[in-house]
Amino acid sequence: MPPDPSLLKPQQWVSAHADYLYAFARVRIADEEQARDLVQETFLAALQRVDKFEGKSSERTWLTAILKNKIIDVYRKKSAVFVSSEITDAANDQNFFDETEGGHWTAEHYPRPFRTDDTNPLESKEFNQILKACMQKLPPLWLSVFTMKHIDDESSETICAELKVSSSNFWVIIHRAKLNLRACLQKNWI
Amino acid sequence: MNELKKIQYNCKKATLLIEKKSFTKITFREEIELRIHLLGCSVCVLYKKQSKLINDRILQLYNGGGNSEKEYHLPDTYKKQMQSKIDQELNK
Predict the structure, then answer these.
(1) Confidence category of residue A78, pLDDT binned at 50, 70, 90
(2) Which of A164, A184, B5, B79 could share a disulfide with A134, CB 3.0–4.6 Å?
(3) What residues contact residue B49 under an 8 Å CB cut-off, 6+ apart?
């Protein structure tokens, strides 16, 4: 069946979807320039594939799916560099628990209450800013795993396969990432 | 240390189970272990509350009804460049 050219309007892609796609990329990729390039690449890749568009989803959903794959490629490349050393290094770096005491919190990492006030919009905005900054401090592989799980709600199997992480390491990363994030919030949200 | 003591004092395991549980089913045994631990460990109860708060905030931040769109904009010059590249491809 020949594709229906009226379903896609590449002439209007930039004005209709560029900001949306850029925002989608930016929350998943901190690097402004890289996010911009990914949007551009998405449009060009989409043009090559116009004949494969079946009209089952909206134009925007289709473009977003292409972008999503490109983002996973970036995660994979970034993560590959760190896979071997990252977990052990970071684990030694931060001793949240005292292994000799059977895994109790160490005194310096004891969770303490946040100064959080959910009813105050100004405070919650500030909280979100700090949360964002704290996420950017996570090692690339952790951030990739964390983002795919928390924001995109991907299945654990998909994440493990895409990022070449074993299933036991997957939970170690999810756990460690959260411990670091929580600690970072406690330190900066005072 | 007997089995019960091991669970009572193991905050590392308890916090791992808290994270696991927010995404997937944990085993019956794990569920019991976690409950016993939380009964006696107020620090991990606080951790659980904060962990949930972080999860909620992350979802709010990133899927919060297109809020990010208001925050991030591509510069017009860049959009023009993109458009002209697309036009070039279309006219090939």
Answers:
(1) confident
(2) A184
(3) none
CB-based contacts of B54, cutoff 8 Å, min separation 6: A131, A178, A181, A182, A185
Q: Where in chain A is the domain with CATH 1.10.10.10?
A: 85-188
Domain residue spans of chain B: 3-90
- This prediction has a pTM of 0.81
Per-residue pLDDT tens for A127-184? 888 998 999 888 888 888 999 999 888 899 999 998 888 988 999 999 999 999 999 9
Instruction: Give the ipTM of the model, two decimals please.
Output: 0.82
Find chain A residues with C-beta within 8 A of B54's C-beta.
131, 178, 181-182, 185
Q: Do A150 and B89 touch (CB under 8 A)?
A: no
With respect to CATH, is domain A85-188 assigned 3.30.190.20? no
Segment 26-45 of chain A within 8 Å of chain B by CB: 26-27, 36, 39-40, 43-44
